[in-house]
Amino acid sequence: MPRQIFAEDHEAFRETVRTFLAKEVTPHYEQWEKDGIVSRDAWRAAGRQGLLGMAVPEEYGGGGNPDFRYSAVLAEEFTRAGAPGLALGLHNDIIGPYLTSLATDEQKQRWLPGFCTGEIITAIAMTEPGAGSDLQGIRTTAEDKGDHWLLNGSKTFISNGILADLVIVVAKTTPEGGAHGLSLLVVERGTAGFERGRNLDKIGQKSQDTAELFFRDVRVPKENLLGELNGAFVHLMTNLAQERMGIAVAGIAAAEHLLEITTQYVKEREAFGRPLSKLQHIRFEIAEMATECAVTRTFLDRCIADHSDGTLDAVHASMAKWWATELQKRVADRCLQLHGGYGYMTEYRVAKAFTDGRIQTIYGGTTEIMKEIIGRSLLG
Asked: Which of 77, 243, 256, 285 is catalytic?
């Protein structure tokens, strides 16, 4: 079914992304997986190619185009290439909106040019050892000391945690305020008391550095408060829809790509003297996955278009995130099964997709949280 949401400019951008992947990512990706981290050179190359800060105003070195469809193209092509380690989506679509919508003019001048060139790599530190989706459980504190905040606490599972030069930290600034006593503080590389722990060993996405972060009496300048004091909860809720859309876009793209390579595999692989594709069970499996992908794609494209127009709400973003990532998980499992023993070998794309994609139903809000958001909207 032909897609109708992209114009010629989007497809031209798609070719740019594919060229970038072929030149700057694919040849190095195996080494990055072994190293557990991508090269900073790749980030700078992405900046030179115009793949960073696409929605950042031109006066700060960005592309000046907030059209989410470009982000969707980027997510789709990186997913098809099997290269989630270079987390441009995190940088552009999750961190970017905080800086463009909340930062003061002075902060924008300080941070956005490097954000767009790849000289400044970003992260957001929300999750703690004892607090994931529940913001009220956050224990990291920031005490007002007059000319600075004194930050203490720890974070875990922080994507880009090792590479990040600029970390947006969610901290409790009003102890009695619960989720509404939280603020966003920007901690920069080299700040005294800011330390990085382990580059965590994950089952997938090996080249995407995910770290523990520690803050011990970190003096954060008052001018590094991002947005409103005690306003983090509202700020976080405002930006979560886009984060979830980015994850959902990657989810359906992964499912479609796995279906493509598995369809080709069962045509070529023989069992009992004939191709697997001649077996009715195999045909039914492919038919079911193709239908599920087609239906999901239609919904996702509508959500992409709505988000690009600024009309997508949090409930439909949650629906998209839940459904697309759970579909990705099911398709990855079924496609691995259809590959037989070869599907269990890491040299096959399906094996890597199986482990790389497993996190999709967890980060950005678990499937269970997505269902809760949807349920509350319908039942109160």
From this structure: 243
| All residues at 6 or more sequence positions from 315 whose CB lies less than 8 Å from its CB, including other chains | 373, 374, 377
**Global model pTM greater than 0.90:** yes
Residue 243 appears among annotated catalytic residues: yes
For residues 365 and 133, is the Cβ–Cβ distance under 8 A? yes
Contact by Cβ (8 Å): 296, 324: yes
Segment 136-170, tens digit of pLDDT: 889 999 999 999 999 999 999 999 999 999 999 99
Contacts of 350 (CB under 8 A, 6+ apart): 258, 261, 262, 332, 335, 336, 339, 343
Q: Which uninterrupted H or E stretch holds 255?
A: helix 232-268
Asked if 59 and 85 count as a contact pair (C-beta separation under 8 A), the reply is no
Question: What is the separation, in whole angstroms, between the first and last Cα of the chain?
Answer: 37
CA separation, residue 53 to residues 49, 99, 209, 321 (Å): 11, 10, 21, 23
Q: What is the DSSP string of 280-296?
A: HHHHHHHHHHHHHHHHH
* Tokens of residue 155, six digits: 């974070």
Look up tokens 């080249």; give the residue.
207
